[in-house]
Amino acid sequence: MRLSRYFLPVLKETPAEAQIVSHRYMLRAGMIKQASAGIYSWLPLGFKVLKNIENIVHEEQQRAGHIPMLMPTLQSADLWRESGRYDAYGAEMLRITDRHGRDMLYGPTNEELITDIFRSNVTSYRDLPLTLYHIQWKFRDEIRPRFGVMRGREFYMKDGYNFDLTKEDALHAYNRHLVSYLRTYERMGLQAIPMRADGGPIGGDYTHEFLVLAETGESEVFYDSEITDLKFGDREIDYDSVEQCQAVLEEFTSRYARTDETHDEAVFNQVPEERRRTARGIEVGQIFYFGTKYSEAMNANVQGPDGKPVPVHMGSHGIGVSRLLGAIIEASHDDKGIIWPEGVTPFHVGIVNLKSGDAEADAACDKLYAAFTAIGLEPLYDDTNERAGGKFATMDLIGLPWRITVGPRGLKNGVVELTSRRTGESEELPPEEAVKRIAGIYGKL
Ligand code: ATP
Ligand code: MG
Fold first, then answer.
1. Is the CB of 140 under 6 A from ligand 1?
2. Is residue 124 part of a domain?
C-alpha cells in the first residue's frame, strides 16, 4: 500500500477522552473512531489488525478440529426464555421489539441459539463429539463502556460450543480448548495466563480465564511467579489425545493463578513468599464446562448407546477478538507508539522515502515494494512529501515492526537502512539484503 493512496487519519493531539495507552494509540493511529459510547467504526488500519487476529483464531480453532459457522447477531427472546436467562441477564441485554411486536435481542453470547441448532439436527450419540464455533459481533449494554475496544458495548468475539456424550469427553474438549488458546495467544505475541475463575451468568464449576498481565487491566490477579516462565512454544500436539491435552492443562494450571473472584488467601500463602505476585490483568478469553445446564433446560438430548435419551454435556469457550487489539498494545508499546508483534502487524514492513520526487530514491522504493509484494509480504510505503521527521513519527506511532529507510545519500553507497521498531537498532545494507532479512523473519525465504 502506498500511503498517498491509503486512508490513515493519524491524529497529532492526544485525545482527551482516552485514559489508557492502547485507547490513545488506537485513536491517534487512525485505527478506530467512536460511533457512540462503546461502539466503534474500524478504520482501515484497525480493521486490518482485527482481521489478522481473527485469522489466527480461525486457524488455531480449525487446527484443534473445531468447525466454523456463523450465527446471526439478532436472536429471538423465546430461546432465552426457555433457558431461563431472558430475565436473568438483566440490563446488559439489549432488547429490541420488531414491527410485529416480537421480542428480539442483540446476542450477548450464543449458548441458546447453538443448543437449538444442535437439538434440531443431532439425535444420536454417534454424531458426537462436536465442537462448533463462530466469530461474530456481540452486544452487551455495559454500564461503563471504557478504554476503547477493551470494554465496548459492541465487540467481536469468538465463541465456541462443544457437545459431548459424557463428562469425560466434555472435559477433553475443555482441555483441548485450553491448549488451542495457549497457541492462539502466543502466535499474537502475547502471554495469556490461564487462571481459575468464576462461572458468572454462564454457570459451571470448571472455568479458566486467560489473562494478559498489564497495569491497566480490570481484573485483580494472584499468581505464583513460576507460571510466567511457562511457554507452549512450537511443540507438536495431537488434539485427539486425551493424555497429551490433559498433560498441558496440568502443566499450565497446577501453580497458583486466580482472579479475585476465586482467590483464596490461605491457599495462596502456601506459595513461597518470594514467588507470590499480585497484579492486574486483561481478560482475553474464558473457557467453561457447564455440563447439562442448557441441554436439560432446552431438551438437547441424544440417543445414547443403550437407546435411552441422554442430555449432552456442553461447554462454551470465548476469545475477545476486538479486545485483543487493546491487550496487545498494552503489552507492547513505548512512548512513541505501538510495537506490533510480527504475527498481527497490519503491514509487514514500512518503507520510508526520504526524498520523494528524487528519481533514484523513488526507483529504489518502487523496487523494494515490488520485491516484497512478489513474495507475499505487504509493505506500507510512505511516498508522501512530508518531511522525514513526520514520516518517522507516523511509522513509530502505527508500530510496524520493521522499517526500511531509503535516501539519496545511502543509495550512493548502495545501501538502505533497516530499523527494528522494538529495539530501535538500525543497520545499513544493500536493498536486496534487506528484503532477504525481512523475508526470513516472516518465513518467506
Ligand atoms: P468481563 O468480565 O471482562 O466483563 P466476561 O467474563 O463477561 O468479560 P465472557 O462472557 O467470558 O466475558 O466473554 C469472552 C471474552 O469476550 C472475554 O474473555 C473478553 O475477552 C471478551 N469481552 C467480554 N466483554 C467484552 C466487552 N464488553 N468488550 C470487549 N470484549 C469483551
Ligand atoms: Mg469471562
1. yes
2. yes
